[in-house]
């Protein structure tokens, strides 16, 4: 019988019996804890291959990979930022692999060395009990009705928040963020720190909330509503990669195949992420339903320091 335990930020191992050997495939992930728990359990039940998991924030996952550089153990990496896949591919750290289950994954969600597990988008997370009018676009949160009631995730701590800032400032300059700062909006830290005061009723809305987190909260009865702005937003594909130092590449490829299988993608959809495969249904808006702002990742990240400095200056006024 499969035994699987998982704790955020701590390695967890799927074992077969008390005398089982070490895990056959090691996965590091910045994705939702429940999702990787379900994927690992389902994969092991189907293949008999045990899975060891380290689940944490992207920063902690990257720090662990760096700390293990002399003796790397991770076989499969799932990041919350596509920039990781681009960076690791440029370093020559990834194994080229195209899963047979990736046929229905759109081309912009896969490369020779990475494929999306799922996709999140940024949105307005609004508390309907806040006494404020329902917003429909980003600029609404700079109106007087939202004075001192808006949080933003820190783009220095969140890759997706950075890309939203870059996309919006690239078309309009920092004017929208100047208006938000003048209206008392604050940069509240990482994504959870920005969202929690809204869930608790201390704030009215998050500008740039990660959609699936708020959707999951709403499904559990939290007073929160997710609104995708009419003027557009950014998406954050979550790449899956096989590391070239892996001693378990066959098993790693099997795990990628399972993530992209009908069962694996159904698990992705259950967490309120958009499935990578276009033929998998989800109880949420999908990419085709959203107005997606273009982001030239190479150009955007080349100016990352400049953008973050302008953003920090705006909110330090």
Automatic annotation (TrEMBL):
GO cellular component labels: outer membrane-bounded periplasmic space
Keywords: Iron, Metal-binding, Signal
GO biological-process terms attached to the record: thiamine transport
Highest taxon of source: Bacteria
Gene3D superfamilies recorded: Periplasmic binding protein-like II
Keyword Metal-binding: yes
Protein name per its UniProtKB record: Extracellular solute-binding protein
One Gene Ontology term of the molecular function aspect: thiamine pyrophosphate binding
Signal peptide annotation: 1-23
Organism: Frigidibacter albus
InterPro entries from the UniProt entry: Ferric-bd
Annotated positions binding Fe cation: 212
């Amino acid at each position: 019988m499969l035994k699987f335990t998982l704790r955020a930020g701590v390695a967890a191992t799927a074992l077969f019996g008390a005398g089982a050997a070490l895990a056959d495939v090691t996965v590091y992930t910045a994705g939702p804890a429940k999702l990787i728990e379900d994927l690992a359990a389902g994969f092991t039940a189907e293949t008999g291959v045990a899975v060891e998991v380290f689940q944490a924030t992207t920063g902690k996952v990257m720090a662990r990979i760096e700390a293990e550089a002399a003796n790397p153990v991770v076989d499969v990496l799932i990041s919350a930022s596509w920039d990781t896949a681009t960076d690791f591919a440029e370093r020559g750290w990834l194994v080229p692999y195209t899963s047979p289950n990736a046929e229905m994954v759109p081309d912009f969600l896969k490369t020779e060395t990475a494929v999306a597990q799922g996709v999140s988008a940024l949105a307005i997370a609004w508390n309907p009990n806040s006494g404020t009018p329902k917003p429909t676009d980003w600029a609404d949160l700079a109106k007087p009705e939202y004075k001192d009631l808006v949080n933003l995730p820190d783009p220095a701590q969140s890759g997706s928040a950075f890309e939203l800032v870059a996309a919006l400032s690239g078309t309009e300059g920092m004017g929208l963020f100047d208006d938000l700062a003048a209206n008392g909006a604050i940069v509240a830290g990482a994504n959870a720190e920005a969202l929690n005061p809204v869930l608790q009723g201390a704030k009215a809305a998050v500008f740039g909330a990660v959609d699936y987190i708020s959707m999951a909260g709403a499904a559990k009865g939290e007073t929160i509503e997710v609104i995708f702005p009419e003027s557009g937003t950014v998406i954050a594909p979550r790449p899956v990669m096989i590391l070239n130092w892996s001693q378990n590449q066959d098993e790693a490829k099997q795990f990628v195949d399972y993530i992209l299988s009908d069962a694996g993608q159904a698990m992705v959809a259950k967490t309120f992420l958009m499935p990578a495969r276009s033929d998998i249904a989800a109880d949420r808006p999908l990419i085709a339903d959203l107005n997606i702002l273009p982001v030239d990742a190479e150009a955007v990240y080349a100016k990352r320091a400049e953008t973050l400095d302008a953003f920090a200056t705006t909110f330090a006024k």
